[in-house]
Amino acid sequence: MVETRREAAPEDGVLTRIGQAIMLHRGGDREEARNRLSALWQEIGPHGDAFHRCTLAHYMADTQDDPRDELDWDLRALEAAEGFVTERPAGSAATPGESRVADGPGPRHPLVALRAFFPSLHLNIAADYAALDRTADARAQLRRARVSVNALADGEYRQGLRDAIERLQLRIDRAAGHTP
């Protein structure tokens, strides 16, 4: 009898290290989390895996003290995600319903994983703009967040994002003197 074994996917050390930094941040050690994420950002480089760059920048933004720095990191996360989604090598266009994966060296990540970041990225950028009193930019990002959240499957993540979008919208409206 021949036994077939499924090979386990190789551990993604970068995502593990990002996760460790996130745990440090959530545990209250913001500076150490920022230091580790910064070192990892340097290691990955500007041409590293798009999913890694997006994830890292997304969480690096949360460790920033200055709202302008937070915005810069959130924009880097969005750039990494958008760059992968829109810039495919010639002849590699996905067919409808196809689950694309990140090309290049290193681990493969489903395109859907990057797309799932979009509502959160736009929401975070909207919050950054709101913190910087850039209301028009904040509202534009909220519109993008609403559109992209509709592409997600129903569930807690989608509903949580919808609720967060509405809370930020209310906060922006109140700050601008509009009452719903």
UniProtKB/TrEMBL annotation:
This is Tetratricopeptide repeat protein. Residues 86-106 are annotated as: Disordered. It comes from Streptomyces glebosus.
